[in-house]
Fold:
Amino acid sequence: MGNAEAVQSPPTSDAAGETVDYPAIQDLEATNGIVAVRADGKLRLGSIDEIKGGAGATYDVADSCGDVSANEGEFAVVCDGAVRVFTGTEERSFTPEEPVTVAVPLPGGRVIAGSADTPKVWVYDSDGTQTDSIKVARPTDFILAQGDSVVRLNRFDTTIQDIQLDKSRQGGTLRVGLGVGQAAFGENGLVLASDATGGQLMVYTTDEVVRLHQTVPTDPSPWAVAWDPANKLAWITSTEANTVTAYDISKGVPREQRKVGTVADAQNMVSLDDGTLLIASSSGAGLQIIPPGTGAP
Structure:
């Protein structure tokens, strides 16, 4: 178990919507209407129209940098121990003494960071001063936040854990199937996660402590996940089948609502506020833009 990797996709020819030419995309994030695309050593921030037109703010981000994260209108990435935070056309950075490898913005300009080697997370204020240190179950491979709600992933153990910032302590730790792929916040503390090895979508709640709420089998080798706030749907890609499927999770059992074709190697995905899906190919097949309502019955 654990250490899941995305399965390489077969060729595809039926990707829904529009596909914009783009080199291999490493990261795709969105917050407050701003989209961030990381590819070819660059991180580009802007509206979807700016991204399509090659405009927006651009920053150099080396391949050695960690994963990009987003929250509260800001983006963060750790590069060689330095935490870099981007807000539109502005960047600020600081270098903690701690061995941080991943980070995510918090409200008020704060940042929470984790380490791939050390079982702790640290909170920093807007000028990089450490304000808290919290012991966690294991080292951190990815950390994500929605407002002050924070969860972290460990890919080796294939686990998810919440961080209770107001109490300055770690929360519960739960298994994510046989091999966690990606995770993303929905609304009101909802977290979606792909069990890439076990072939399922897993739905967690984090309003008090992290709890497994629902699971549903998916197309093989699921990976990227996203919450569509306009249609209240949980989306998940399958890199083996080149599909993206939407589930209604409002009832006791998730129900499939839509399914459309994707670009090859759809390893990153976000949903904009109006339900537009953006799907990024990690192998250079482009940035796919799926309009709201596509695939509806």
User: Anything to note?
Assistant: Residues 48-52 form the longest helix (5 residues). The mean pLDDT is 96.
